[in-house]
Amino acid sequence: MKSFLTTLTCTLVSTLTFAQAAPSAPPSGEAGKTAQAREDVYVAAFNHQDLKALGALYAEDVQFTTDDGAVISGRTAVIDGLTKYFAKNKGVKLEVEIESARLLTPEVLAEKGLSTLVSSQGNPDTTRFAITYVKKGDQWLIAQIDESAPPVADAAAQALSELGWMVGSWKDDAPGATIETKVAFTKNGHFLRRSFSVTREGAKTIDGTELVGYDPVAGHLRSWIFDSEGGFGESVWRQEGNKWLSSVKATGPDGGQSTAQHVITRVDDNKYTWESLNRTHNGEVLPNLDRVNVVRVP
Fold it and tell me: pTM above 0.90?
């Protein structure tokens, strides 16, 4: 469960554009223009951590319902929460994209979209929201906010965007072998396909495909790999700074069982290193494979 303020601030803005998704057009017409204007004011106040300006955007009796059903009532409770949040989160930023907006009456505006809160370290937190504004005099105030979990597709695209730099063609300098890899996103950006070819002196070429995708239940990336010899495997991915650790369990065409931990370290957009550690085959410990450089092929 997200903290109240993380949830609240996410709910008041819309999602960042993911690396694989084109930004949607803002809603048109009077409702769209009004909603966009209100969001622009809110984001400016939030990014300046201007609590007075933020407080002026809420109705006194605002109701906020989180995705787990908790209800926070009143402007005072909202601003108190924001005050505590800003004290702990310097440099947090918001961006806006609105999915829909319509006037229910001349004094009531309904808005829906996705929202993202981005920390100073660049970590995004996304949720879906619905906001109801009421017009008091000449001011539109936030009267109600309801949130729900973000769509799985968005979570997948966001997680995979961290590997967007890998798209392209690559070549290893592994001793005794030529290894070529081509990486591309599948349609809609929900999987990353890595096609590889391994050629060793005096042996036939082995081809293979690895699909990297987001597991919404476990909340992390995982991959499935298949080679032309009949072998297959599965990996769990996790990120540590500029490193990606892939814990592999594989089955060979003869039924042999292997495990390893592959380490991919990004050097820059045109180079990374690869190494294989903690290797076993049918329970027997194998030596580690030395680190090799992998460079982008123009």
Answer: no
